[in-house]
Design a protein that fits this description.
With 573 residues, the chain is of the alpha/beta class. It has a 7-stranded mixed β-sheet with strand order 2-1-3-4-5-6-7, with helices on both faces. Strand 3, helix 3 and strand 4 form a beta-alpha-beta unit. It is globular, with a radius of gyration of 27 Å. The N and C termini lie far apart (80 Å).
């Protein structure tokens, strides 16, 4: 029996963990199993053609909110030319309301509900033997064109019994490798499907070592742990991070290995600060779901937390420069109106994470908020990903404004290119939220959201925004100098836009000669070791020198290497 497992990922760099688990779960008994990954942006016709040409007896599709629409389109196109192929779906998007889903999609023969490793194997055994899968737990299936059978649910599997999903050698260079070390979540957040399962199960630490080692050998450099709350158990978390450190030590630092973990801020404590003190820089990245700082909202979604208490630990971790920090907010939660969300945004922004991710509530099938959507006035898209459109507390107009703000936040703050300029610009507003909101509305008025822009163009847009407001001299000089500093920090410029240049009367005497002499000064050999290994041309291409008036008059040398920029203020006394 030939079996094909298919996933339509959001981007090429993504990988699908589920179909890798399924492949390894059945490969011992069903060796003729393959997997194919596509993206949701590829033409449906091309995807269908590649799947069809495999001539599989069974095709299983992994379904999520981001790919269900495209996956169903592929299945509908595939079915007429493959009438005898059994088509199966699985994943969180089809595990709830499965009977109705199968009635609405007659092209599909069955749906795996919940964890599928054992269910899928037993189903393949049943189909291989020619028997009906009436005894396969965790399955909804079509016994006739009109009849849907919903089998009893399956017990959760112990993680120690799971196979290594990356046991099959494959090329992972330039892609994210998804790994899990726990299943389940200690919290009961009403917007999340994890609230429908009880308890947390753990992967034995040495099993993680085996999986991590395999992914690294296959070329992966970013390992994303899909654990809902990685730090639920400190002993387990520290063991996993110890293994990550030990395995990463076999590779040079330039390899850029990074472990991404989702953690709960309220579970941070002094032990975490102590542990991270000696941890390698840049190896780990923490994503923390704040969601809201409004107590009433947090009570409704069953996510009690005291942001002001645990934010101090986040600031400490940030000051140690050991981990990249991503903090998340969700717009559209119950009782979170415009002013409330503005407050949540400003409180989280004050922590200055490396990224502030602004997401929008997805009213998921099976979630507590879906069941109470009318009570809170949650109006949401009827199609995946079920994004909130308005609530009793946020109008559709306000949510559209927040979508625009999210776009600007991502382009400017999350890009990391505008640190000095944003610090200065935000200081001219009552709060950071007010700056981003006004800047986003200016973009909207100009029609700029309808076009794509280069990173270089973003500098010009920020300059134009302040020019539109009031181009007084007390704004011009400090803005230009900070924007020019960020411009030089971004990459070595071949040229500098005219609006960023100092007026000739503000330049030091003999500006070109001084600039050249500073750049070629042989004393850099005592400060920057790489200087000795470069000839003059290489050094010139790796550096830039510029004079700045703000925040104080000074010359600065910029050294560009391996995607990073180091700055060296030049003493002129």
């Amino acid at each position: 029996m030939r079996i094909l497992l298919v996933a339509l990922n959001a981007k090429y760099v993504h990988t699908n963990l589920a179909i890798r688990y399924l492949r390894e779960s059945i490969r011992g008994e069903f060796p003729d199993v393959d997997l194919r990954e596509f993206t949701i942006n590829e033409p449906i016709e091309r995807i269908e053609a590649e799947i069809y040409e495999v001539k599989a007896d069974v095709i299983g599709f992994s379904c999520y909110i981001w790919n269900l629409k495209e996956t169903l389109a592929v299945i509908r196109q595939l079915r007429p030319t493959s009438p005898h192929t059994r088509i199966l779906v699985g994943g969180p998007e089809v595990s709830f309301e499965a009977e109705a889903f199968l009635r609405e999609n007659p092209e599909i023969d069955g749906a795996v509900l919940g964890e599928g490793e054992i269910t899928f194997l037993e189903l393949m055994r049943a189909w291989e033997s020619g028997s009906e899968p009436s005894q396969v737990q965790g399955l909804a299936w079509r016994s006739s064109p009109q009849e849907i059978v919903l089998n009893p649910p399956r017990q959760q599997i112990a993680m120690a019994e799971l196979p290594n999903p990356y046991n099959h050698k494959e090329e992972l260079q330039g892609r994210l490798a998804y790994v899990e070390t726990t299943r389940g979540c200690p919290f009961n957040c009403q917007y999340c499907l994890s609230s429908t399962f009880q308890g947390v199960r753990y992967l034995p630490a040495e099993r993680f070592r085996e999986i991590l080692r395999q992914t690294l050998q296959c070329g992966a450099r970013t390992i994303k742990l899909v654990d809902r709350t990685f730090n639920v158990d400190k002993e387990h978390s520290f063991k996993i991070l110890d293994i990550a450190r030990e395995e990463a030590a076999h590779y040079p630092s330039e390899a850029g290995i990074r472990i991404h973990c989702e953690i709960a801020g309220e579970l941070l404590d002094e032990d975490w600060l102590h542990y991270l003190q000696d941890y390698p820089k840049d190896l780990v990245q923490f994503e923390i779901g704040v969601q809201s700082t409004n107590p009433e909202t947090l009570a409704i979604i069953c996510r009690p937390q005291h942001f002001e208490r645990w934010a101090k630990y986040v600031r400490e971790i940030r000051s140690m420069s050991k981990a990249h920090l991503h903090l998340d907010l969700i717009a559209g939660l119950p009782k979170e109106g415009w002013d409330s969300f503005r407050g949540s945004f400003n409180e989280v922004y004050a922590v200055q994470p490396d990224m502030l991710q602004l997401g929008f509530l997805k009213v998921l099938k099976g979630s507590g908020l879906r069941k109470k959507s009318k009570e809170y006035g949650l109006v949401f898209s009827p199609d995946p990903p079920y994004t909130v459109l308005q609530t009793d507390d946020l109008s559709h107009d306000e949510l559209l404004k927040l979508h625009r703000l999210e776009d600007i936040l991502d382009r400017y703050y999350n890009s990391g290119r505008f640190g000095h300029t944003l610090d200065w610009a935000i200081g001219r507003y009552s709060t950071p939220f007010d700056f981003y909101h006004e800047f986003a509305e200016y973009w909207h008025q100009q029609g700029w959201f309808r076009q794509s822009w280069s990173a270089k163009a973003l500098f010009e847009k920020l300059w134009a925004f302040f020019a539109y407001q009031s181009f007084r001299s007390d704004i011009c000089a400090p803005l230009r100098e900070r924007l020019r500093l960020d411009y030089y920090l971004w990459e070595r410029p071949n040229s500098v836009p005219a609006y960023l240049l100092l007026p000739d009367e503000n330049l030091p005497p003999n500006y070109p000669e001084i600039k050249y002499s500073f750049q070629q000064d042989p004393r850099w050999a005592h400060i920057i070791p790489e200087f000795r290994g470069m000839d003059r041309r290489q050094w010139t291409r790796a550096t830039a020198v510029e004079y700045f008036q703000e925040p104080q008059p000074q010359w600065v040398l910029f050294f560009y290497q391996n995607g990073r920029t180091q700055t060296y203020p030049i003493r002129t006394d």
